[in-house]
Amino acid sequence: MSELQQTLTQLRGALGEAAVLTGEAISPQHHSDWTNNAPARPAALLLPRNTEQVASALRICHAARQSLVPQGGLTGLAAGAEPRAYDIALSLERLEGIEEIDSAAATITVRAGTRLEKIQQAAAEAGFLFPLDLGARGSCHIGGNIATNAGGNSVIRYGMTRDQVLGLEVVLGDGRVLNLMNKMIKNNTGYDLKQCFIGSEGTLGVITRAVLKLAPARSSMATALCALPDYASAVSLLRCLQRELGTPEAYELMWPDYYQLGVSWLENPHAPLNDNYPLYVLLDTCATREALESFLDRAMEGEQVLDAVLASSESQARHLWKIREASGEFPTRMRPLSFDVSLPIGRIGEFVDDICQRLEAQWPGQRSYYFGHIGDSNLHLTLDCNSLPQPAPLLAVEELVYSAVGDMGGSISAEHGIGLLKRDFLHHSVDPQTLAVMRQLKQSFDPYNLLNPGKVLP
Ligand SMILES: Cc1cc2nc3c(=O)[nH]c(=O)nc-3n(C[C@H](O)[C@H](O)[C@H](O)COP(=O)(O)OP(=O)(O)OC[C@H]3O[C@@H](n4cnc5c(N)ncnc54)[C@H](O)[C@@H]3O)c2cc1C
Fold first, then answer.
1. Residue 107 in contact with residue 166, Cβ under 8 Å?
2. Mean pLDDT score, 240-267
3. Do domains 98-216 and 222-327 have the same CATH topology?
4. Which CATH fold would you assign to the domain 222-327?
5. Is residue 77 in contact with ligand 1, taking CB distance under 6 Å?
6. 98-103 average pLDDT score
7. Ligand 1 touching residue 67 (CB < 6 A)
8. How many whole angstroms from 306 Cα to the centroid of ligand 1?
């Protein structure tokens, strides 16, 4: 019997036959994540139902020196959950469900495989808000959100996933279970180890449960789409908005090519605003509609805003958001090469102008689209590889963009993580000393490099 077969026999003994799949029984969905980068059927797929089974699986794999790739909802955009043919994939999908809502503490305790949308709904039913929100809400798992420290639409107001996590349960590569579950805001007892696992993309441990903070439910919500004269106005409008109406719930910028594309992909492609303005911002605020209207009137008088449409109903607000969420359709409508970068907020306009010029000079006729959660300094840039000479010079484009980001002191990954796709560009944002300490951390949690090997660290 081969070493792998022996390991699988032990895994079947610990988890049960139905929780250890091999060959054709593994659905192609588990061969990659949303990127479909280099799909591979893993040697096996494990489907544990509880923390004890995760711990047993990790203990067995550790003893056999078998590599393991944690998988959540597989909506990741960095190929972080993509296995190689000789890895075992460990899906958290059966470790699912909400354990408790504590109204006094304003917390929700969940298992790692719970879909984000389910947590949002449970929070709403209990009169709270779970503010983490992203386009993949219907498929992504909270474990994946925590492992990637996901951002999304409301970071400007509530912070990243890290800011929503009060406690974690984590299984280490050798099967030890760390109980870091905690409901308290204040807890300065030694090193806050949970922070190591948030954003570690499955390379340091497997997250099995979490305690999350809940926010008060929103009492009102107003949505507006505004046309702006230039990038400087986008930043000054945000600061005025914060001063006068409080920090918005979302502040999403779209450059004209992206806006035009988003409108053209609507079921009813009617542009809410003319499509020839220099810039558009979609904003959500908890202020009343009247307060937002009067704020926008003043901004238009001061020519900070050129035109605006205020959603008159929830369905109109959703319609406006559909334009912004066009990026979810990129994989089916084009051959996207996507970037998710952070830059000092005051310099994003200059960065876009510069990178546009450089891309056009190098590859005339290229089509690139710019949008993002600008209130959080986060710019998304997507290039349609069909508009590049073939075979598309992907590496050259990536080098051009990431070195420009590095030169501006930016980050090559704002919210999607490093995974496999950005691993070899990490040096543009992380200096050699920091990288060496990251390697030491990995070594101390996972000395045999069995947890998601090859991801994050070059
Ligand atoms: C349409 C669309 C919109 C998106 N919008 C956003 C956005 O606005 N902001 C944003 O940040 N991201 C966004 N994403 C990316 C993606 O949804 C997030 O990265 C999400 O957090 C991934 O969760 P997942 O459960 O799908 O994780 P997976 O894709 O399954 O895994 C992601 C990484 O986490 C690891 N992992 C998963 N579960 C665990 C666990 N329990 N323990 C340890 N490691 C684990 C995996 O090994 C992998 O490295 C979007 C994706 C799509 C498709």
1. yes
2. 96
3. no
4. Alpha-Beta Plaits (3.30.70)
5. yes
6. 98
7. no
8. 37
- Give residue 51 CA to ligand 1 midpoint distance, Å: 20
Nearest CA to ligand 1 atom 46: 81
Task: Flag whether pLDDT at 312 surpasses 90.
Answer: yes
* pLDDT tens digits along 246-258: 999 999 999 999 9
Report d(CA 143, CA 97) in Å as an integer: 12
* CA proximity to 154, closest of 247, 222, 249, 235: 249
Residues 6+ apart with CB under 8 A from 95: 48, 49, 50, 51, 54, 111, 112, 113, 143, 208
Identify the architecture of domain 334-433 in CATH.
2-Layer Sandwich (3.30)
pLDDT beyond 80 at 259 = yes
**Candidates 27, 77, 116: which one to mutate for ligand 1, based on the most atoms within 8 Å of Cβ?**
77
- Edge-first strand listing for the sheet containing 279-285: 307-310, 222-228, 279-285, 250-254, 367-372, 378-384, 336-342
pLDDT at residue 153, as a whole number: 86
Res. 340 pLDDT band, cuts 50 70 90: very high
Whether the predicted pLDDT of 60 surpasses 90? yes
Average pLDDT value over all residues in the chain: 96
**ipTM (interface pTM):** 0.99
**Which has the closest alpha carbon to 337: 380, 294, 301?**
380
CA separation for the pair 26, 141 (Å, rounded): 19
Architecture field, domain 3-91: 2-Layer Sandwich (3.30)
Rg (CA), the chain: 23
pLDDT (tens digit per residue) in 374-394: 999 999 999 999 999 999 999
Residue 347 gets which letter from DSSP? G
Architecture of domain 98-216: 2-Layer Sandwich (3.30)
The closest alpha carbon to 168, from 72, 51, 69, belongs to 51
Residue spans per domain, the chain = 3-91, 98-216, 222-327, 334-433
